[in-house]
Amino acid sequence: MSTLHVNKLKAAVGTTVNIESGHTLHQPGSIIQIVRTTPATTSSVTLSSSPPNMVEFTSAVRTTITPKFATSLLRLNFCSLMSGQNNSAIMSFKFYDQTNNSNVGFSTLGTGSGRTFCNASYRNKDYDANDRVHLNMTAYQAASNTNARTYSIYGMIESGQTIYMNMTTTDNNGCSYAPPVFTIEEIAQ
User: Fold this and answer.
1) Cα(76)–Cα(187) distance, integer angstroms
2) How far, in Å, CA of 174 to CA of 160, rounded?
3) Which of 7, 29, 30, 118 has the lowest tally of Cβ within 10 angstroms?
C-alpha cells in the first residue's frame, strides 16, 4: 500500500474525474449509499398495541440494506404523519431489525425499571381526532458485517387505542395525507 500526496486533482479532459469501475473512494463521514422506502399505497395504516408490546405497523415500510463495508455506521431515519385520535395516551415507536430480531440503538436502564425501550415517543391531545404530529425518528447502528438486513417500524400506544400512520380519520380537503419515508444511510467510518 502506498500513499499519494496531492494538493489538487484535475480532469485530463473535460471537468469530470472518474473513479475506475469497481473501486471506491473512502472518506470517513461520507455517505456510501442510501436506500429508501415510501409505500405506493395511500390506504390508512393503523396500530393498536398496549405496552410493553410493540408491533409492526406495516410490512410496506420494511427497508433492506446490504452494507458495502463492515466498518460502516448505519443511520436509520423514519418520518411520517401520526394521528393519535385525540386521546391522551403516550405513543412509542422503534426501529426493529427483522433479520437479526433485535432493536436498533438499544440500551438498558438497569434493574428496577418498567420502562419500554423506544427510539421516539410523544403524546398528542389537542382538539379532535384529526390532530396530528409529524414523527421524525433517527437511530444509529454499526454495520458489523456486509450481510443484507431488513428493518421495520414498530409501535405501541399506552391505552391500546388506535394510531393512524400517514393520515387522519376524516377524508376531506382540510385534512392531509403524508406518505411515510424510511431512509437508511451507510456512512463511512
Assistant:
1) 11
2) 27
3) 7
